[in-house]
């Protein structure tokens, strides 16, 4: 079981030039749990994740890891505790899958440290977990979008951090591979106590797999808590401008959102 770490945003404001994206945001990530961040496009989800991994410096406020600002950590020290899978990572041209996944081991190696058996074990386990073993010798350039996404997730797993941040980890994946990846992250959380924070577009996947749900709207936290408390018809209307019905998922017992389009409004009104 991994050691739990605290990750907190305190009065966080983020901007790109003059454009403010996040304004005075407070957020506590529950340690040892799975948190999903949801919200409409351009509400600040990816920007928040970038700041939490110190890729983007705050305009105001702080992101604190164990009470210390993430920007004060040496890069390698931070990378041994906190890993990030960004939304659209770019692989070096011509790199093989095995070499890319192996780069997840760099934070664990010193200047004079050679590649060790434990590095081989970590890379092999990551490839196995993401069903990418057969891709190990292939160039990343020649993979499909779904295969490439699985390889990037393998690299993040090989890093073996106690905190893992993932921006749209199910992008490019068909539904069966989406389930496999989310099951894998759940296994990682349950077995090692890894704190997982992920941005997801699919509200129902987020509600099914997350212990803690954060809904962002206009750069602020609109609601945060257990999925059943956050994924409500009122919240969905406020955050997404969407009418919906929320029922209990008969498989998971979690909330299940059914969107109502314009052409179904009359039917829904008659049924309600």
From TrEMBL:
Subcellular location: Cell membrane
Primary localization class, coarse: membrane
Annotated ABC transporter domain residues: 7-243
Alphabetical list of Gene3D superfamilies matching this protein: P-loop containing nucleotide triphosphate hydrolases (3.40.50.300)
PROSITE patterns, A to Z: ABC_TRANSPORTER_1, ABC_TRANSPORTER_2
Membrane topology annotation: Peripheral membrane protein
Biological processes annotated in GO: iron ion transport
A GO term from the CC aspect: plasma membrane
Domain of life from the UniProt record: Bacteria
Gene Ontology molecular functions: ATP binding; ATP hydrolysis activity
UniProt entry keywords in alphabetical sequence: ATP-binding, Cell membrane, Ion transport, Iron, Iron transport, Membrane, Nucleotide-binding, Transport
PANTHER family xrefs: IRON(3+)-HYDROXAMATE IMPORT ATP-BINDING PROTEIN FHUC
Protein name: Iron complex transport system ATP-binding protein
Source organism: Blastococcus saxobsidens
């Amino acid at each position: 079981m991994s050691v739990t770490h605290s990750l907190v945003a305190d009065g966080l404001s983020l901007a790109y030039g003059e454009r403010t994206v996040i304004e005075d945001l407070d957020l506590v990530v529950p340690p040892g749990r799975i948190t999903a961040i949801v919200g409409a496009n351009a509400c600040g989800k990816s920007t928040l994740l970038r700041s939490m991994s110190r890729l983007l410096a705050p305009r105001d406020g702080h992101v604190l890891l164990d009470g210390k600002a993430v920007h004060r950590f040496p890069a390698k020290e931070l990378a041994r505790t906190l890993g990030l899978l960004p939304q659209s990572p770019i692989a070096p041209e011509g790199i093989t899958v095995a070499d890319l996944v192996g780069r997840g081991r760099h934070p664990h190696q010193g200047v004079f440290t050679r590649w060790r058996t434990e590095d081989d074990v970590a890379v092999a386990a990551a490839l196995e977990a993401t069903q990418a073993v057969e891709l190990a010798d292939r160039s990343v350039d020649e993979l499909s979008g779904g295969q490439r996404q699985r390889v990037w997730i393998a690299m993040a797993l090989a890093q073996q951090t106690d905190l893992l941040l993932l921006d749209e980890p199910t992008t490019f994946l068909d539904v069966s591979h989406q389930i496999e990846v989310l099951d894998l992250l759940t296994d990682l959380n349950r077995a090692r106590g890894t704190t997982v924070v992920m941005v997801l577009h699919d509200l129902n996947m987020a509600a099914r797999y997350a212990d803690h749900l954060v809904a962002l709207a206009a750069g602020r936290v609109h609601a945060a808590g257990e999925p059943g408390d956050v994924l409500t018809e009122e919240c969905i209307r406020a955050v997404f401008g969407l009418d919906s019905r929320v029922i209990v998922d008969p498989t998971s017992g979690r909330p299940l959102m059914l969107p109502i389009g314009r052409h179904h409004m009359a039917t829904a009104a008659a049924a309600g």
